[in-house]
Design a protein that fits this description.
Chain A is mostly beta strands and 111 residues long. Chain A has no helices and 11 strands. Chain B is globular and about 40 Å long. The chains are: A mainly beta (111), B mainly beta (115).
Chain lengths: 111, 115
């Protein structure tokens, strides 16, 4: 059972453009929603995270938008750069401290 | 601060052989996870330890996979016998439960190829 659904599978954006990745979940017991960035040959690294009592969180060029009623959250990358080219995973954590990951989005930023 | 260490980085074995992966988490991190990441997919939780006790192993294929965390520090994940579908990257992650920041710190993974 896929706990967290992520789309799109791949994304190509021009440099300076906005990248948007979407995720949806079903389990209302999830209490923490992180986004991880993964480069080839490396483990995922935390990019930004949000708790369900907040609708938006911004850190630099990265913003999470969270819609609790719709059980959806998204990552927005403003002014996308070639260095942002990586795979992005959304995730959700339950109260048992287990993390469930989406299927990933491969982002390519074209110079 | 040293990160999560994993070894070996790469392993190629024939089906039905056995393999073991080792993980050393960040010092002081009580919670340790093993994830399986198949090419093109997201990490899938195999097992979660809190100190040296198992918290969740519901998705661990126990007929062939086993894991232990002796003394609540290092952990070993073993596969015996391996199947073709076990080809994946095995990621170890740790977190500091008391801080409750929710951040998982991942190692670089051990890539397994089963022929």
């Amino acid at each position: 059972q896929q706990q967290v659904k992520q789309s799109p599978q791949s994304l190509i954006v021009q440099k300076g453009g906005i990248s948007i990745i979407n995720c949806a979940y079903e389990n209302t017991a999830f209490d923490y929603f992180p986004w991880y960035q993964q480069f080839p040959g490396k483990g995922p690294a935390l990019l930004i995270a949000i708790r369900p009592d907040v609708s938006e969180k911004k850190e630099g060029r990265f913003t999470i938008s969270f819609n609790k009623s719709a059980k959806q959250f998204s990552l927005h990358i403003m002014d996308s750069q070639p260095g942002d080219s990586a795979t992005y995973f959304c995730a959700a954590r339950n109260t048992g401290n287990q993390f469930y990951f989406g299927t990933g989005t491969s982002l390519t930023v074209i110079p | 601060e040293a990160g999560v260490a994993q070894s070996p980085r790469y392993k190629i074995i024939e089906k039905r052989q056995s393999v073991a992966f080792w993980c050393n988490p960040i010092s002081g991190h009580a919670t340790l996870y093993w994830y399986q990441q198949i090419l093109g997919q997201g990490p899938k939780l195999l097992i979660q330890f809190q100190n040296n006790g198992v918290v969740d192993d519901s998705q661990l294929p126990k007929d062939r996979f086993s894991a232990e965390r002796l003394k609540g520090v290092d952990s070993t994940l073993k596969i015996q016998p391996a199947k073709l579908e076990d080809s994946a990257v095995y990621l170890c992650a740790s977190s500091h439960r008391r801080m409750n920041t929710g951040e998982l710190f991942f190692g670089e993974g051990s890539r397994l190829t089963v022929l």
